From TrEMBL:
It comes from Kribbella turkmenica. The chain crosses the membrane at residues 16-38, 44-61, 198-218, 230-263, 269-291, 303-325, 345-372, 379-400, 406-429. Its main location: membrane. Pfam families: GT87, MptA_B_family. This is DUF2029 domain-containing protein. It is found in: Cell membrane. Keywords: Cell membrane, Membrane, Transferase, Transmembrane, Transmembrane helix. One of its GO terms (cellular component) is plasma membrane. InterPro entries: GT87 (IPR018584). It comes from the Bacteria. Belongs to the glycosyltransferase 87 family.
Length: 478
């Protein structure tokens, strides 16, 4: 009896750090949502909140772990998503486009073949998505979409319209086929009057599911699963999943699943998952070099991934032909990915636009070759983490939610220094139009990553014991 009482007391004591940390994590996420909704220093709140969660994770891992730790982490992760569900999306209006695309497909029409303002789809309008345009009103927009190449005409065409909450309502969708299937599935179960809530709820559930996957995989690799709170209780994840419902959370889950299966030597399944992830958001294609080897049969995963990605487009190509490209060419041109002129904020500090374009291409090839060379020399999660993070630092995209997969990869790889990159993206997002400031912010994030990486490498070269620097495991990241 005494032994049972002692065991019960020990269990309660081990649960205290998790419960206290969970309360802090939930409070941080609530504060982040409230600050963003009120526009009260939201980016500073995100940075401080992330550092607080990092401190909580570090503190918890210094204490013995209870038997139901993973369950507790997942439970608190669900609580962290609740504040975002209480209001409409905050950081962007992308979720309204998701709702529209799903609704259009349920009607038997392709979102690649029509723009949201097209009068041919007037019957699908409702007051939530179109507060200023009823089904009986004429928008003046008809016919198949045409995306101009002229930058000025493109900017005018893609400007927001006050009659609808859908962004870029005069151009077709940009989202790939698996993302479209996801939108359709959610739309099937969501009444029109619910607006974006269905997508927010599913995105929140996906974030919790990724938490369970990360914690379980960390435990399987004999690492402390409590480090999963850096994703689970992250104010960034709360803001972009349960609140903004960004599809990037689905891409993050698929990327993590691909890395997990790759570590278990399942190249075909890995390729399928990676291809599906790329058909949710194109960025996972950047990870292909990490799964490529110069050895025989070393290209199985990339070939399956590319084949899967291409196969998802076949039904849409058969239905609408070249319209399947949607607004992608216009987006790449408008956002600067096509010519490099308005990207690479770090390189923009020292190079003119033309030289920047060449430097970006050269660096991208060098990073890809390094990832191929590092294949099987380090855990696949580590390669994917720095490869994805390097791509974000190199291209410095405008939208910070692109960094969601990087957060998950940083947790899985045990490379938390890379969390500096998505945080820098939020600060740069708030500095839109100030190119020098954006470049300096991203440069600071790169400096954090390089400093910690150098310290870790120095510790490894000295040989014994754990690597120096910020790491989530006593040895190599998984």
């Amino acid at each position: 009896m005494t032994e049972l009482r002692t065991a019960a007391v020990t269990t309660r004591r081990r649960s205290v750090p998790l419960l206290a940390g969970g309360v802090i994590g939930a409070a941080v996420c609530t504060a982040a949502i409230a600050a963003a909704a009120a526009d009260w220093w939201p980016n500073l709140t995100l940075v401080v909140g992330t550092l607080v969660v990092l401190g909580v994770a570090w503190g918890m891992t210094r204490r013995p772990m209870g038997r139901r730790t993973v369950l507790g982490i997942v439970g608190v992760a669900a609580v962290c998503q609740v504040p975002g569900l209480t209001a409409a999306p905050i950081t962007s209006t992308d979720a309204y486009r998701y709702v529209w695309d799903g609704r259009v497909q349920l009607s038997g029409t392709s979102p690649y073949a029509h723009v949201p303002l097209d009068d041919a789809l007037a019957r699908l309008r409702d007051p939530v998505l179109f507060p200023g345009l009823s089904p009986q009103d004429s928008s003046g927009v008809t016919g198949p979409p045409r995306v101009p190449r002229d930058p000025a005409a493109l900017a005018a065409l893609s400007a927001d319209d006050s009659r609808t909450r859908i962004n870029r309502a005069r151009v077709p969708t940009i989202y790939p086929p698996v993302a479209q299937a996801y939108f359709t599935a959610v739309a099937f179960f969501t009444p029109w009057s619910a607006g974006t809530f269905g997508l927010q709820l599913v995105a929140a559930a996906l974030a919790v599911g990724v938490t369970a996957l990360l914690a379980t995989e960390l435990r399987r690799r004999n690492r402390d699963p409590r480090w999963a709170v850096l994703w689970a209780w992250s104010p960034v994840v709360a803001l972009e999943a349960g609140s903004a419902a960004h599809v990037d959370v689905l891409a993050a889950g698929l990327v993590v699943a691909a890395v997990v299966t790759a570590a278990r030597r399942s190249p075909v399944i890995t390729g399928l998952l990676l291809g599906v992830a790329a058909s949710v958001k194109l960025l996972p294609l950047l990870l292909l070099p990490a799964f490529t080897s110069v050895r025989r049969r070393g290209a199985t995963t990339p070939l399956v991934a590319v084949g899967t990605f291409a196969a998802t487009y076949v039904p849409h190509v058969l239905a609408v032909g070249t319209l399947v490209l949607g607004f992608l060419p216009g987006y790449l041109g408008q956002e600067g990915f096509a010519d490099g002129s308005s990207r690479s904020a770090i390189l923009a500090l020292v190079l003119p636009a033309d030289a920047r374009q060449v430097a970006t291409a050269v660096l991208a090839i060098a990073v890809a070759m390094l990832a191929i060379r590092r294949h099987q020399q380090e855990p696949i999660a580590v390669t994917c983490c720095w490869l994805y993070g390097a791509a974000l630092l190199l291209t410095t995209p405008t939208y910070p939610w692109y960094g969601l997969p990087l957060i998950a990869l940083a947790v899985l790889a045990g490379r938390i220094e890379w969390l500096a990159v998505p945080l820098a993206s939020y600060l740069a997002y708030a500095s839109f139009g100030h190119e020098v400031r954006q470049g300096l912010i991203h440069l600071a994030a790169a400096a954090v990553v390089l400093t910690v990486t150098a310290r870790r490498s120095g510790g490894c070269r000295r040989g014994r014991g754990r690597p120096a620097g910020l790491s989530l495991s006593p040895g190599r990241g998984g």
